[in-house]
């Protein structure tokens, strides 16, 4: 198992290298002089030359790329071109708010998605099933930034139960995580339903029923266990969705997370921050997929990693 | 046995020859909800193009005497902070959102379909290179990829279309490759090859139509998610110019007036995005049921 994990971890490296080439390349692919662009509009010629020297832009492209890689691996991410603050510090500060937001969103949406999915599948073809699926397709179609604004209007502005923005107390997590998790809950509900409907047709489910086991045991213990296998893969993908979705939701709630840092860096073309963030998001995403793959083995004894 | 007799009777009742298109219509006509869902965006477009006939305002008609007004007989959806008619802006936004959705998914579909055809048909290193790249792209959540592309290219309408198109490519490539792999083995393709048809003719005339069912289903679903992604980008200020009458941009600008109680500035654009995306998702589900015989049995 540990061996398999390690091997998969190694397999991430070529993908990360491809991504790093893109992320490194884009500053160089931009029309014009990278130092000129990175120094900003009101930099003097001397500033640009100093920056060019500091960034090693006078070196060969290949050497520059290897310096970029070395800096990434040693977490030497450089300084923000706007504020001069070390990029590492900026990301470290923003990491936990985004982590808590994604974690809470994933937790509630998985539970809700599984329940709605099982609810619909066990009432397959009935009105209750159709209702569950109407709710799910609406959840998928809902622009989550709009949902966030609606929730904010009701709970923060009208009822004044919760704050509108920022992350100071744990209760500030409630609205953003509801907003962020809605799409995932809806996707999970649809997916759980179809996975379960497939499984319920299998012979061993009929056997379990014939043995006289209660419907509850048959569904939750026998059927769901097998339906979980595709569902776990889906969770990995959905965590990735949360990662992207959190960028949008952080804008709605002015959340001091990685998404806000990235979007603000894009506004002011702070390339040091953009490069570091793109690498971080890619790495996180690949890692999550890996963990989802490994979880597979725990759930399905039929798959054993050698 | 009884079943085959019934089938024979049914055929006798309907001597008409079944064309694929006819069969599709027969199935599709059972998907009532999907037909309604198809009609709504079409009606929106009609209303948008006919707007000058019944609305006295354009999307950029300023009226500083009547800012932030609620619904009235004159302004059905109220006015924004510059006194612009929200309904007129919503209708303009409908054209823009559907344009972005349609163009970006079409571009992604054309590139993806061609790549998928080549990968599936030629196999070998062509397949390996195309599919590895698309695996890497596919691995990323759409909005993250789109934001990454905007981070590199900068905001703007064309870049939004490029960003949204890019994340559609790998999925189309994958679908078409799968279809091509199985159709390539079929007898009629073998017959075409024996008759001396060129690779190009076999790929585009014989194999491509066979993969169209799943492409159409995916195309429809993708339009919904592309409209949503484009609106999200604009909402974050990474999409079209913020002053454009685009739904995401309108929502973003309207947030500033929530405290002032002007809820309609954000409510109507949000509702428009929701309804449009919902329609394409329902239509996609209906098309899938009508075009995919395997699912049709359930």
Automatic annotation (TrEMBL), chain A:
Stretches assigned to the ABC transmembrane type-1 domain: 95-292
The entry's keywords: Cell membrane, Membrane, Transmembrane, Transmembrane helix, Transport
CDD domains, alphabetized: TM_PBP2 (cd06261)
Compartments reported by the entry: Cell membrane
Chain segments annotated as transmembrane: 9-30, 99-119, 131-153, 173-191, 227-249, 278-299
InterPro entries: BPD_transp_1_N, MetI-like, MetI-like_sf
Residues forming coiled coils: none
Gene3D superfamilies: MetI-like
Membrane topology: Multi-pass membrane protein
Family: Belongs to the binding-protein-dependent transport system permease family.
Function according to Swiss-Prot or TrEMBL: Part of the ABC transporter complex GsiABCD involved in glutathione import. Probably responsible for the translocation of the substrate across the membrane.
Designated name of the protein: Glutathione transport system permease protein GsiC
Organism: Roseibium litorale
Lineage: Bacteria, Pseudomonadati, Pseudomonadota, Alphaproteobacteria, Hyphomicrobiales
UniProtKB/TrEMBL annotation, chain B:
Keyword Membrane: yes
Gene3D superfamilies, A to Z: MetI-like
Compartment(s) where it occurs, according to its Swiss-Prot or TrEMBL record: Cell membrane
All residue ranges annotated as the ABC transmembrane type-1 domain in the record: 94-284
Membrane topology classification: Multi-pass membrane protein
Any Pfam family hit: BPD_transp_1
Transmembrane segments: 33-55, 98-124, 136-154, 160-176, 257-284
UniProt keywords, alphabetically: Cell membrane, Membrane, Transmembrane, Transmembrane helix, Transport
InterPro entries, per database record: BP-dependent_transpt_permease, MetI-like, MetI-like_sf, OppC_N
Domain of life, source organism: Bacteria
Statement: the UniProt record of this protein carries the keyword Transport: yes
Principal subcellular localisation of the protein: membrane
Alphabetized PANTHER family for the sequence: GLUTATHIONE TRANSPORT SYSTEM PERMEASE PROTEIN GSID, OLIGOPEPTIDE TRANSPORT SYSTEM PERMEASE PROTEIN APPC
Function: Part of the ABC transporter complex GsiABCD involved in glutathione import. Probably responsible for the translocation of the substrate across the membrane.
Protein family: Belongs to the binding-protein-dependent transport system permease family.
Name of the molecule in the record: Glutathione transport system permease protein GsiD
